[in-house]
Amino acid sequence: MTDNVAYAVVHTEPPSIFLADDIDVLHRVLALEVVARTDPAMLGADAGSICDALLEERWGDAVVAWIQALGTGIDVYDGKSIYTADDLPADLIGAQLQFTRLFGGGRIGELRRLG
């Protein structure tokens, strides 16, 4: 695993997914790409306070107010790993599987005989 990322799933139809290299960048992405691109008429009376939060760089406050105004959920995840081909070499995946919990930590033959 080389790096960690942060990502968000905006529960629109279809869902939108945003990926960033850390949580701070993700907050700014959500503020710009989701909140600020919303039609103000959809936000009603909350539009002004959301604009204020954006101008004051209070990204979290703007996103929370947007969620409350629209009722659209956003799930945010931080510290998720990026896996590369080096982390999971194709020629070793079979051997690695044998030592996972599902396969009994290497005891799959014994478990199959019992089952």
Structural description of this entry:
With 115 residues, the protein is of the alpha+beta class. Helices cover 43% and strands 17% of the residues. Strands 2-1-3 form a three-stranded antiparallel sheet, with helices on one face. A hairpin with a 5-residue loop joins strand 1 and strand 2. Helix 3 runs antiparallel to helix 4. The longest helix has 13 residues. The model has no long low-confidence stretch (mean pLDDT 89).
Key phrases:
115 residues; 6 helices; alpha+beta; three-stranded antiparallel sheet; single chain; 2 domains
Please summarize what this structure is:
The protein has 115 residues and is an alpha+beta fold. The chain is 43% helix and 17% strand. It has a 3-stranded antiparallel sheet with strand order 2-1-3, covered by helices on one side.
Number of strands: 3
Element string (H = helix, E = strand)? EEHHHHEHH
Q: What count of domains describes the coordinates?
A: 2
The largest pleated sheet is described as: 3 strands, antiparallel
Neighbour order of strands in the largest sheet:
2-1-3
The low-confidence parts are: none
- Overall body shape: elongated
- What's the alpha carbon Rg, rounded to whole Å? 22 Å
The chain-level mean pLDDT equals: 89
> Structural class given helices, strands, pairing?
alpha+beta
Residue fraction in strands? 15-25%
Quickly count the helices. 6
End-to-end CA span: 35 Å
What is the helical fraction, as a range of percent?
Answer: 40-55%
